[in-house]
Design goal:
mainly alpha, 5 helices, Arc Repressor Mutant, subunit A, 92 residues
Length: 92
């Protein structure tokens, strides 16, 4: 028996570089609560750590030395919408 049973395809991670403009746009979307960090991770296959680095580097709030919780508001909005759907379904 060959090692074919144990040959597992590995995803080769490519080194990708994102332009400064791209990073600034994603940070701006985060600041305006248009997307969450999870959305960006999923869509562009970027690590959370990379996104937090972008936020630290390009965020207007970070430059003003203001502490900001990035995902709390978007998560809160999602939870409220889900709770509203639950209420509607329970009424049916």
């Amino acid at each position: 028996m060959e090692n074919s049973l144990f040959n597992i395809e590995k995803k080769i991670r490519q080194c990708r570089y994102f332009s400064e403009d791209f990073k600034k746009k994603r940070v701006n979307e985060l600041e305006n609560n248009l997307v969450s960090i999870a959305d960006i991770c999923r869509t562009y296959q970027v690590s959370r750590a990379a996104i937090y680095k972008w936020v630290y580097k390009y965020s207007i709030m970070a430059k003003k030395n203001v502490k900001q919780v990035v995902e709390a508001k978007s998560d809160t909005q999602k939870i409220l919408k889900l709770e509203e759907k639950i209420r509607e379904l329970e009424e049916l």
